UniProtKB/TrEMBL annotation:
It comes from Leptospira congkakensis. This is Apea-like HEPN domain-containing protein. It comes from the Bacteria.
Amino acid sequence: MINNNEKFAILTFYNANVNLSESIIKINENLSIATEFPIEIDNYWKKWIGDIQSEKIKNSNLSIFFKEKVENPNIIDRNNRECESKVYLFYCSLVTITELLCDYFPLQFTGAKYNNIFEIQSFSQMLKPEFVNGTPFRRIDKTVIDDAIQNYLALIQLSSLKKHSRIFRGINYFLDGITTDDWKNKLHNYVRVIEAFINPEIGNTQRQFKSRTELFIGPSFHSLMEKVYAIRSNIEHVHEIQRGFDNLNATQFQKLTIITQSISRYLLNFFLSNKNIWNYFEDSTIDEFWKLSPEKRMEIWSDNFDINSLLEEIDKLI
């Protein structure tokens, strides 16, 4: 699986929400998904990372790993970072598709194989993805992996264009929302994802957060989006979350967080899977997109997120 004079990066998850019949799914010559850890765990690994984490790795059921041939496998250099970045990019692609649930911190490391020996060259824990109770999710099956592959390829192509820094900031906010265990920061970050797409004018953010999201969710949810934005403002300005609301309880806030996350996930997935709209959301063109007529914008963004169906799902889970 990993040959002599190859460097590798692996990101592994313990007890992830996986339903894969294949033990290895090859994405390309270098990148693969495995339901068993791709390297034998021996005493060398235990010495490096300890007994507990070695056991978590040994019993992990999802690993993303990347390998490539290098000239100097024994030297820690940019090849380590490049391998690591490919693995992380696929992880990003996967969590834009569905929740990635796991029971321990994701463990990430780089290394090399030379002289028939594996060497660990870096090791770290990542923040564990956290989800709000009541969030609908798909188990990670072959269909989810196939969708993630398409997002992965789209992200590679999009990054090569170097024209969508605003959208990439939105992706980063989404990842921040996924990994924080603070509900307040979750909602705050997901609102930022939405703002990456609506590009509100300074001084008109609150009004345009309602009006411009019509394109993505339809015209019947102004009061909902007004409430989301008001809560976001309370969080931004370090006020109590319920300031300005008579009866905002924990369950209602929970639902609003799930809704905001689901909208932001929808935006990222629809955008990545429709390359014909990329040119409208470049840093230099997004202003012009929002100056188009509503009819023209609907022609370009030809889909709506179904909030009513989402609410039905949430009510079954909470």
